[in-house]
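Researcher: I need the complex structure. Ligand is 2-phosphoglycolic acid. Inputs:
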Amino acid sequence: MTKKQYVVANWKMYKTAHEATDYIEKLLPQVENSSVRIYLAVPFTSIAPAAHFAKGTHVVIGAQNMNDAREGAFTGEIAALMLKEAGASFVLIGHSERRHIFKEDAALIHRKVIRALQDDIQPILCVGETLQEFEQDQTQQVLTQQLGSALDKIPPEEASRIILAYEPVWAIGTGKTAQPNHIQEAHQICRSILAELFGKKIAATIPILYGGSVKLENVSKITETDNVDGILVGGASLNPQTLAMMVEAIEKKPSRKPKK
Ligand code: PGA
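Model: Output:
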């Protein structure tokens, strides 16, 4: 059975609310008949208008970050419940820019995953090694640590609501894409760690996406790699036409069966 494929667009700090609705208006007719799950991680101010525009379509709107507390005196922060009410169905957690620029540590990322599950917003957990760790052949060790801490004490039935994104830090926004054999190996490592944590059956249901300089030119090669259930795209997702073409390329993957 062919698994569902995902395209997650991470807009980062780009696009005003007006630009967001304009984008969605252009994207929707191009992906109307697609079976690929299209998730847009938009800036906070675009969530409500984007969700309104995407309502009733298969385009799903989400956020790029959230606080780990339910509510509280945390000036400038945003809670899962607020995101949900605005129309967000998912949230990115542990993105490398949050880990490295905003110094989010493993304990905070773990608390955010727990909070997201508790407050019923789907977490997309991002993990990946730095260039130095890659060069020192530490990918397995890093993934074991990051997944072990982020998913600690999560019951298997809850784990099946998570999406995982493997994003080597050295490939994000750098134009350097990991080679298919590295992606395949890293995804296999993630799958085995998930199996150890939650059992093989649950682990098989958790989508594992690849992110890091995914472009129209390399999307087919990446998504044809074993164990890749989709992509997380930053820079190349900012143009709706490019995103639609990526979705189309995934739809045409030789291993994919026609839609039922
Ligand atoms: P990129 O970003 O596609 O621009 O490398 C990926 C990401 O931020 O997840």
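Model: Summary of the prediction. The radius of gyration is 17 Å.
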